[in-house]
Design goal:
302 residues, mainly alpha, Alpha-Beta Plaits, three-stranded mixed beta sheet, 3 strands, 61% helix, 8% strand
């Protein structure tokens, strides 16, 4: 038997995505035009980078919409995993973009070229405002939804890059040191890579049905074993259905008989309150049945 506890889906960020995409597309056009006018490879390269960010926002938005689709006969969980895929793709896009920025900065460091510092400062300052405003739109959901966090990190990273460009442009006008721009770019890229690595690892972990970081499997096992009448727990599995929903399945051995629906409702409530598990499925067994699940190394469940 099973007991399921469902909750309302995550808040819609459709308006935030629409505004963010529109703002960033407009900025790409401005950056590309002025980069071409002043012959700035840095601005043209950043315009291409920002265009990839627009693609990342579109991807995250599509995943958020797909995750909201209702289950059907072919997809009984719906399309919730799309949000995990989008978070992973956004992390990969950001790592690739920063790797490209490192490569370009290292190349430019070998032969620094003079640039139009004032134009670069003005355009980069616009980038700080655009990317900062877009990141702010996703800040509220960045702590609870990995997909939204991916979009937030993407925009926050761009704002940081643009801020670094403003600073290096100002120092260039003051000192005339052409190497400031590539060195600043390399430093910023390394900081962003370090910050994005957690999103990459976390989303990859969830793609392979790993236990979400917010859940300690031993604690879940202990909670189930502490229930009255439970003699054993096996086939315990916890995984992420999406970046906001966690599922559980477990077999409870209860030799004294089935405890009734109130028992299942109580377990579902405790699992939700303590571990934010929203979709628990519990099977009651009078005798332990071995379904062939391999025994994990920690011996928690079967």
């Amino acid at each position: 038997m099973s007991q399921h506890t469902h909750h309302h889906g995550p808040a819609s960020f459709s308006r935030a995505f629409a505004i963010g995409i529109a703002l960033n597309l407009g900025f790409v056009v401005v950056e590309a035009v002025y980069g071409w006018r002043v012959g700035s490879l840095a601005l043209l390269a950043d315009a291409g980078h920002n265009l990839s960010d627009v693609a990342g926002l579109v991807l995250a938005w599509a995943a958020a919409l797909a995750a909201g689709r209702l289950p059907d006969h072919r997809h009984t969980y719906g399309w919730q995993r799309a949000s995990i895929l989008a978070a992973f793709a956004n992390a990969v896009l950001l790592l690739v973009a920063m790797g490209s920025l490192l490569w370009e900065a290292a190349h430019r460091l070998q032969s620094p070229a003079p640039t139009d510092g004032l134009t670069i400062i003005v355009v980069a300052a616009i980038g700080v405002l655009v990317n900062g405003a877009t990141a702010a739109l996703f800040m509220a959901g960045s702590k609870t939804d990995m997909n939204i966090r991916g979009a937030f990190l993407h925009m926050a990273a761009d704002a940081l890059v643009s801020l670094g460009v403003v600073a290096s442009g100002a120092l260039y006008l003051w000192t005339g040191w052409a190497w400031l721009d590539p060195v600043t770019s390399m430093a910023i890229a390394l900081v962003i890579i370090a910050g994005t690595w957690g999103l990459f690892r976390g989303s990859l972990h969830l793609l392979f049905d790993g236990v979400p970081e917010s859940v300690v499997l031993a604690d879940v096992d202990a909670l189930l074993r502490a229930q009255p009448g439970v003699a054993d727990v096996h086939d315990l599995h916890v995984w992420a259905m999406s970046t906001t929903d966690i599922a559980l399945s477990a077999h409870l051995v209860m030799p004294d008989g089935h405890p009734g629906d109130a028992f299942l409702e109580s377990i579902a409530r405790e699992l939700h309150q303590q571990f934010h598990i929203t979709h628990p499925t519990v099977q009651i067994e009078l005798d332990g049945l071995d379904h062939g699940c391999p025994q994990p190394l920690n011996g928690i469940s079967k």
